[in-house]
Input
Amino acid sequence: MDEIALRHTGDSEARQGDEKVIITSLKVEIHPWLVQPRTKSPRSRTENFIVQFLELLDPYYTKKKADQRLQKRLNKDLIRINAAFKQMTQVAEYAIDWDDSLGYHPELYTAFLAPVLESWSSHLVKLTLKVPPSMLNSLARVRLPKLDTFAFHFSTGSLSFREINGLYDGFVVFLNNLKDSLSSLTFLSTHSSQELDVSRVFRKMGRFPLLKKVCLSIPFDGGHLSDPNTFVHFLKRHRATLNELDLFSSRCTPRTKAGDPDLINWIQRILNSIHTPFPQLRRIGMSLRPLRAPLDTFIRFIDMHSSTLDSLTLTDRVLSYSEVWDVLRSSSITASLQQSSITDLNMRLYTFSVQLIVDFAFLLPSLKTLKIDCMRISADRGEVSL
Output
């Protein structure tokens, strides 16, 4: 078996043979669960009387007993899973997930984060983390010398700016310790992270000589990146090696106070700050935000990299026929069709028509993969307006 996902779905009783099944797993995904202690009702009048008497002596007696039962079940789960993990010696990919809308047991994340990473450090090449912020400082001691791909979900809820900074210091240490092996870095943030600002993280990150892919996905209002220049400087430090750049947006963040309204243009501000092409950039993915903003900045950036570009993904905005032509008919792309052209294209359109297929065949003769999310399909050959 190459992959296993661990998710609690009911009682935590061990099942015979589990360990034998997962010893050879190369990929492990774990979703720490909530343990609900069973309510133990008195079985007799005598036992009921004893419980009532003990509650007179200690008003918290019932709660303490429930906590003890919960801890017993947690310990049982930990022993079972850790025993299985110890038999896995070839794990190459590991993912920990966290449902930040629910409560959690710190014991599970404490056990499944740093200790597990350390035990698999000699083989781990891909890591995906979404964990409670309070767990992150434990990563400072972890060394993963072969880690190639890292994806991290920022989820800070209602934590204050100061609390967040204190909790992420160890995380930054962990990141910089990946400098000799990391080639792919993905940062995503949840819309519920009210005071998060990843600018500080980028400001403290060093250079990663092997870095080829960078993906940043934050709420479209840009509030999670108060200083886009910190990200721009990070990109420029890796100009020579970068071959894929993704800038995506997600649903907006609820704010307790008004922020800089210009941050909604965070993607354009990043692209406008890049004046020299990345010589190896082959794959570009972008959210076309704000939805009604001019496309000039996006077109300029695509045009700048037309000689190396072979994959283009444009999300969020639904494009008209004329806007598709504006994006793809730049002079540089047209001039370089016979040398290097797009082979993979992914975008959203108002209308998909026969004429569009003809145009794609003319503009992109090397196109191999076309993914279109369209509002309607038409046989008309004329232009479709907004």
Observations:
- The radius of gyration is 26 Å.
